[in-house]
């Protein structure tokens, strides 16, 4: 089994990476492979709703989004991490998630997901609220812990001083490993996820 962790920070090995690494460490200890995919420090364009992805070849704009889609095909679980920028996920992370979900959502479906964020001080809960919306579109069980999944600090060294936040990250890793094993056992016993029909698409006037 393997889990794909998404680093939505422009800094490859900064505070968000530190949080994701703590999660990955627990998954590795449980015998689960991990990969941390860095979105990168260059701007990631947002989804323009062109529906070119309907042809089944990923996002027409390519780049790291399509790289993630290919990895998502074989991933068993996901962790989405972002720094807090203006009380929300980073602009790159928001654009990435919009395009990943629109073009590759079928590869996320029914697989466990976790979220986390890093901040110097505030804006964490609104960022987590934003990130939690994506798994809800694709029947993804959300892996939680004993507190909201956030760490505080301006540097990786400061993050490691946030003992409570770091322990929450480790709990997420252990809980993700447990859920993946439960799903594996369920499949072995003949239990598959439900086949839900497509929902009716309506608006407020009909």
UniProtKB/TrEMBL annotation:
Keywords: Flavoprotein, FMN. Pfam families: FMN_red. GO terms for molecular function: oxidoreductase activity. Residues 1-152 form the NADPH-dependent FMN reductase-like domain. InterPro entries: Flavoprotein-like_sf, FMN_Rdtase-like_dom, ISF_SsuE-like. Transmembrane segments: none annotated. It comes from the Bacteria. This is Flavodoxin family protein. It comes from Candidatus Faecalibacterium intestinavium.
């Amino acid at each position: 089994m393997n889990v794909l962790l998404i680093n939505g920070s422009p800094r490859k090995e900064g505070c968000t990476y530190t949080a994701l690494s703590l999660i990955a460490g627990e998954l590795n200890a449980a015998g689960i492979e991990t990969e941390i995919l860095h979105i990168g420090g260059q701007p990631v364009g947002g989804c323009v709703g062109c529906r070119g992805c309907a042809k089944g070849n990923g996002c027409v704009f390519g780049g790291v989004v399509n790289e993630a889609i290919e990895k998502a095909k074989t991933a068993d679980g996901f962790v989405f991490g972002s720094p807090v920028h203006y009380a929300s996920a980073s602009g790159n992370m928001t654009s990435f998630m919009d395009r990943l979900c629109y073009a590759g959502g079928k590869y996320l479906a029914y697989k466990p997901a976790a979220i986390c964020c890093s901040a110097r001080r505030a804006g964490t809960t609104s960022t987590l609220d934003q990130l939690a919306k994506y798994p809800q579109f694709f029947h993804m069980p959300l892996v939680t812990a004993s507190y909201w999944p956030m760490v505080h600090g301006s540097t990786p060294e400061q993050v490691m001083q946030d003992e409570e936040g770091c322990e929450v990250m480790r709990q997420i890793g252990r809980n993700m490993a447990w859920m993946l094993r439960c799903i594996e056992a369920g499949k072995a016993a003949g239990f598959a996820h439900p086949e839900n029909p497509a929902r009716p698409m309506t608006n407020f006037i009909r």
